[in-house]
């Protein structure tokens, strides 16, 4: 079954495809699509999430294939800028490896470049989280811990409760062993790898590591911000997106990562 897509902005303008994090859906980009309404915006609910929660999660590669089909059929001239956070960032990395011809420029936040440590603990953690994530009090606590603003916490909680637990388990098993695709070395799509400065070490390391694999990539950190910084600091996030896709200087608040290179803007 096809993935749910919300379409907004200016038809015929350059397209931006927004890919959300685990446990959320396209709603998490509402401040971005409002600020970037002069572009053609496509917000996708990924398999097992939001209005696509009836679609089975198969793999990152399968999801990337489905997003590629959306770009081919709905994006202006069959190509799009891709903005992904967390789960959406992983999908974006796989898209760059497998469907680079469809991507104009990419911004990917909150991803890892190497397998996660302590993977032996994943199975019991997934079992516990599968129970807790269906409890509203725990979902509310997660919203607060991720610094979701109060006016968005209800939407976050509702989406987390609606998420397919099959999707949740499969995604985490795949993310736990994820390595940056070797094929990225051959991808010259201008790519910005970014993260909030308060992220975990393994994510901040990826901001350095992934750009060294790619011929036209940079890494930037948003100091003091958390994982979902598109909702925590939407003005900064929006300014970054606009600057990157229009090839103008990035906001001065964004700090360069050590591994950044290339001429992506």
Q: What can you tell me about this protein's structure?
A:
The protein is built from 10 helices and 8 strands. It is of the alpha/beta class and 265 residues long. It has a single domain, classed as Alpha/Beta hydrolase fold, catalytic domain (Rossmann fold, 3-Layer(aba) Sandwich). An 8-stranded mixed β-sheet has the order 1-3-2-4-5-6-7-8, with helices on both faces. The longest helix has 15 residues, at 60-74. Residues 259-265 have low confidence and may be disordered.
List the helices and strands in order. EEHEHEHEHHHHEHEHHE
CATH superfamily annotation: Alpha/Beta hydrolase fold, catalytic domain
CATH topology: Rossmann fold
Query: Mean pLDDT, nearest integer?
Result: 88
Total of domains: 1
How many helices does DSSP assign?
10
CATH architecture label name: 3-Layer(aba) Sandwich
Helix fraction bin: 40-55%
**Poorly predicted runs of 5 or more residues:** 259-265
Shape: globular
């Amino acid at each position: 079954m096809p993935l749910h897509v919300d379409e907004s902005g200016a038809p015929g303008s350059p397209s931006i495809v927004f890919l959300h994090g685990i446990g959320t859906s396209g709603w998490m980009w509402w401040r971005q699509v409002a600020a970037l309404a002069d572009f053609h915006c496509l917000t996708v609910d990924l398999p097992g999430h939001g209005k696509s929660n009836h679609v089975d999660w198969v793999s990152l590669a399968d999801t990337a294939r489905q997003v590629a089909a959306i770009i081919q059929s709905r994006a202006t001239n069959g190509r799009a800028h891709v903005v992904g956070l967390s789960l959406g960032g992983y999908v974006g990395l796989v898209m760059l490896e497998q469907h680079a011809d469809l991507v104009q420029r990419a911004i990917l936040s909150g991803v890892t470049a190497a397998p996660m440590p302590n993977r032996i603990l994943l199975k019991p953690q997934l079992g516990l989280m599968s129970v807790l994530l269906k409890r509203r009090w725990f979902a509310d606590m997660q919203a607060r811990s991720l610094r979701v603003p109060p006016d968005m916490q209800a939407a976050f909680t509702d989406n987390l409760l609606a998420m397919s637990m099959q999707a949740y388990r499969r995604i985490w098993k795949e993310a736990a062993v994820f390595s940056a695709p070797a094929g990225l070395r051959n991808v010259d799509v201008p790519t910005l790898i970014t993260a909030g400065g308060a992220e975990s070490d393994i994510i901040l390391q990826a901001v350095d590591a992934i750009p060294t694999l790619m011929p036209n990539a940079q890494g930037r950190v948003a100091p003091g911000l958390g994982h979902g910084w598109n909702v925590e600091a939407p003005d900064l996030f929006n300014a970054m997106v606009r600057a990157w896709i229009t090839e103008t200087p990035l906001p001065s608040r964004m700090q360069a990562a050590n591994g950044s290179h290339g001429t992506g803007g």
